[in-house]
User: Which sequence fits this backbone?
């Protein structure tokens, strides 16, 4: 399958994703372990950085127009010399390592890995629109009273890819296009 072919409806499988990883541009770039991240029904994404909201500068706002959108500025946290970070209960902004390049015929949903859920941690994400390219972010929430330890480059979520019934004429053109690149 090439980046111009539209597969049958339903989520892409391992072979379809692998073919797109070899495409130009590749579906995902800057993957620490592409073979280990490739799953039967998706692709695991890994953590690049974590930022904290409790110490953020300013609050957020969303209005009717894009000009009314204000994002809080979270404070970047540093992984220790051993590559680990201890997170207290709370909410954090996680930036992933992988650069995602969605063709205009493919969208993605991102779900937390089940191991996170079993540890009292979850991840909240939005729809990844067809045509999006960038290094995305997600809201990581630590619910467990004793906190959570996270290692840099750990797999935290799985992207699941869905072909559209037809390619989108424009593709994603919002403010997060090419984010964190």
Assistant:
């Amino acid at each position: 399958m090439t980046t111009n072919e539209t597969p049958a409806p339903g989520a892409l499988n391992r072979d379809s994703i692998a073919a797109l990883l070899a495409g130009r541009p590749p579906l995902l770039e800057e993957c620490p372990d592409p073979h280990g991240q490739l799953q039967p029904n998706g692709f695991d994404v890994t953590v690049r950085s974590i930022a904290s909201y409790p110490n953020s500068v300013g609050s957020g706002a969303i209005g009717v127009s894009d000009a009314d959108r204000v994002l809080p500025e979270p404070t970047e946290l540093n992984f220790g010399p051993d590559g680990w970070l201890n997170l207290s209960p709370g909410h954090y902004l996680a930036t992933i390592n992988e650069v995602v390049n969605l063709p205009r015929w493919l969208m993605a949903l991102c779900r937390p890995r089940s191991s996170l859920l079993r540890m009292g941690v979850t991840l909240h994400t939005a729809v990844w629109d067809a045509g999006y390219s960038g290094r995305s972010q997600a809201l990581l929430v630590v619910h467990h009273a004793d906190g959570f330890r996270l290692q840099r480059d750990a797999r935290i979520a799985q992207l699941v890819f869905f072909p559209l019934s037809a390619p989108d004429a424009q593709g994603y053109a919002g403010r997060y296009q090419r984010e964190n690149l």
Summary: The helical segments are 14-21, 34-37, 114-118. The mean pLDDT is 92. DSSP finds three helices and 13 strands in the chain.
